[in-house]
Write a structure and sequence with these properties.
Strand content: 15-25%
CATH topology of the largest domain: Spore Coat Polysaccharide Biosynthesis Protein SpsA, Chain A
Number of helices: 13
Distance between the termini: 43 Å
C-alpha cells in the first residue's frame, strides 16, 4: 500500500523537526508526509519543508478537526492514510510498519496505536494512558457493541491509520465538529460492518499534564460533542466509563503514589462538571462558551455562520 502521513500543525517548531526525523527513520517509509499548517507564528512550516514534508497552508480561522483532515486527504495520494498530531512522537522505527500492518486484512478498515507517557508525565496522566491504551491488542467489530457499549467506538487520531477506500465510502470525517471526529468515523465503519484494530506495537509518546481547569474545558467540549451527536449515547453512557476510570485510577494511585489520590478526585470532579456543562451548552451564552472551551475556533466558526 502507498502510505500518506497527515499532520495538522500550529506553532510547533519545538517538536515538528523531531517528529519528522523519526518518521524518516522508519523500517517502512511513508510515500509522502503532508503538514497542514494553520498560520503558525513560528518556523513550523519552514522546518517541515526543510525536512521534506509537503506543506499546505490554511487560514487559522478555517481550522476544523474533521474538515481540515478531509482537505489534507483530498490532497494526498496514499491507499492508507496515517493521521498524527503534532505532539505525537513515534516511539521506535517500527511505528509505520505496525500501524498499517493490520490493514492488510480486508475486514480491518482502520487501526489506532498505543499512546504512552514518559517520565515527565504526572501520575494521573500516566494512568490515563494505561487505562485507554493497554499492552494487549484487539479487534473491534459490530459484534462487540453489546459488550463494549460506547467503548466500541473509541478511536484516536493522535495516531491512527485508515484505508482510503473505506474512509471515503464512510463519508470521511464530519465537518464542523468540536472534537471526536475520530469516534464518528469509527462508529460509521463499525456500523457498516468493518473492523477496527488496536495495535499496541504502534507506539507514540503523547500525553498532556492538564490542570483541573484545562480538564474542565476539554470535558466541556466532550459534553458538547455528545450533546450534538446524541445518537451515539444509545450505545452507552459516557458517564459509565467515567466511573470506571475513577475507580481504577484510585486503585492505581493507591499502589503507586498515594499522595496523588486527592488530586485525582478533584481532577475528576472538574472533568465531570465540564462534561455536564457541555451537555447543557445550549443554555450557555456564546461568549461564555468561547471562554470555557478548548476549541475556541469551533465557536467562532459557528458565530460567523449564524
Amino acid at each position: 500500500m502507498k502510505v500518506s502521513v497527515i499532520i495538522p500543525t500550529l506553532n510547533c517548531e519545538k517538536t515538528i523537526e523531531n517528529l519528522l526525523k523519526r518518521l524518516k527513520n522508519q523500517t517502512q517509509k511513508a510515500d509522502e508526509v503532508i503538514v497542514v499548517d494553520s498560520e503558525s507564528n513560528d518556523n513550523t512550516a519552514e522546518i517541515a519543508e526543510e525536512e521534506g514534508a509537503k506543506v499546505i497552508k490554511i487560514k487559522r480561522r478555517d481550522f476544523d478537526h474533521g474538515g481540515t483532515r478531509n482537505f489534507a486527504v483530498e490532497n494526498s495520494t496514499g491507499d492508507a492514510i496515517i493521521f498524527l498530531t503534532q505532539d505525537a512522537l513515534p516511539y521506535d522505527e517500527y511505528f509505520i510498519e505496525n500501524i498499517v500492518g493490520p490493514l492488510k486484512n480486508s475486514d480491518v478498515a482502520a487501526v489506532y496505536g498505543r499512546q504512552i507517557a514518559n517520565e515527565d508525565a504526572i501520575p494521573t496522566e500516566k494512568f490515563a494512558r494505561l487505562f485507554n491504551y493497554p499492552e494487549k491488542g484487539f479487534i473491534k467489530s459490530k459484534e462487540n457493541i453489546k459488550e463494549l457499549r460506547i467503548k466500541a467506538f473509541f478511536f484516536s487520531n493522535v495516531c491512527s491509520a485508515i484505508r482510503r477506500k473505506e474512509f471515503e465510502q464512510a463519508g470521511k470525517f464530519p465537518d464542523n465538529t468540536i472534537m471526536n471526529e475520530d469516534m464518528i468515523i469509527a462508529s460509521k465503519l463499525i456500523l457498516n460492518g468493518y473492523k477496527i484494530a488496536y495495535s499496541p506495537n504502534a507506539i507514540v509518546i503523547h500525553y498532556h499534564n492538564y490542570s483541573p481547569i484545562k480538564q474542565f474545558k476539554r470535558n466541556f467540549d466532550i459534553g458538547v460533542f455528545f450533546s450534538e451527536n446524541s445518537w451515539i449515547l444509545k450505545y452507552g453512557k459516557a458517564e459509565g466509563e467515567g466511573i470506571k476510570f475513577l475507580k481504577d485510577e484510585i486503585e492505581f494511585l493507591w499502589n503507586n503514589d498515594k499522595k496523588w489520590i486527592i488530586y485525582a478526585i478533584i481532577d475528576n470532579i472538574f472533568r465531570y462538571s465540564g462534561y455536564q456543562c457541555g451537555l447543557k451548552h445550549k443554555f450557555i451564552p456564546l461568549f461564555i462558551k468561547k471562554r470555557i472551551s478548548m476549541n475556541t475556533n469551533y465557536w467562532l466558526i459557528k458565530e460567523r455562520r449564524f
